[in-house]
Amino acid sequence: MDPYGSSDSSRVFSSPYTRLGILIQRILDRVTPFIGVRWLLNIVLLILFLLRIFFLQGFYIIAYGLGIFLLNQLILFLTPKQDPSLQELDNDDGNNVPILPTRANEEFRPFMRRLPEFKFWYTSFKACIISLLLTCFTIFDVPVFWPVLVMYFFTLFFLTMRQRIVHMIQYRYVPFSYGKVRYQGKNDVTTSMGNVANSGIKISAK
To answer: Where, by residue number, does the polypeptide cross the bilayer (predicted)?
Structure first.
């Protein structure tokens, strides 16, 4: 018993949960650099979920909920942290808010997502695991007419992605860094010139 009259039982019961949280965080820190492996794991879980839905011929409402959740996470992943349309409204009101550069001579600002890549993966991973677990309980197998859900989902996907693509074209930004041109800095150019000079000296010495 402590001076305030509470027992140490709460500490005993909370200790395993604290250790579990530390263990999970340690595992997440180790898998953070392996982007391809992480997303491959999510794809495998999603395929397993779809196969389970196909063979059980049920749990369509769970599949629909998972699809809507993943679509929402994807939209947040493709959305910039500072929406240019909202920034334009703030500038019209007289507030000096920095906007994305639209010319080559303007200051470069990297694309910052509203939902970072790791959080996008982690929430998708948990959603797939929870969806697989829910298919183990028949209480969640609500009878629905699944073609309507499929048609509604693809319609919603088309409309939201079309709106996001129009937004990208209007404000001229790309939410992906793959394939972009990388320019050498001053230090990189100096280092490369030094390497060429050193290689020339060695060749002449021979």
So the answer is: 35-55, 61-79, 120-140, 146-162
